[in-house]
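Subject: for your reference before the review

Hello V.,

The reviewers asked for a structural picture of the protein, and I figured it would be easier to keep everything in one thread rather than splitting it across files. Below is the amino acid sequence we used in the manuscript, unchanged from the supplementary table.
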Amino acid sequence: MTTVIPGTATAAPGGGVAVRLGGRVDIADRVFRKAAEQAAAESIGVDRADVSVEIAGSRDTVAVRVRSPLPIPRLDDTEAVLAATPVLEAAHGIQHDLHERLTRLFGREVSRVDLTISGATAPSRRRVR
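And here is what came back from the structure prediction:
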């Protein structure tokens, strides 16, 4: 997915009058993928290493596929379980958040965000010594 912006950028060197710049901007696919992985990890609440992202796009729109585990409370913590957001509701919230963040980050419309929850992660129990 290459971003090409021929002759549309403007710059105001030294705070002066805006100047129209010619040329082209190419952004490697891996840059979009890494940025999407980081945004997804932050939105979901997991490490970036736990997230995988696939991006398919055209000049104007992008479709993003995210695969990640979902953090859940420890199941023996009754209060946390009762206060937790239901999985489907959390997934829809993550989709919405990623759509907005990635549209802003990429500078183009994200046509869809497919989210696959690949598992669950719970905080590990700390042992007292």
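For the response letter, the relevant points are probably these. The longest helix spans residues 87-106. The first strand starts at residue 10 and ends at 11.

Happy to draft the paragraph if you're swamped.

O.
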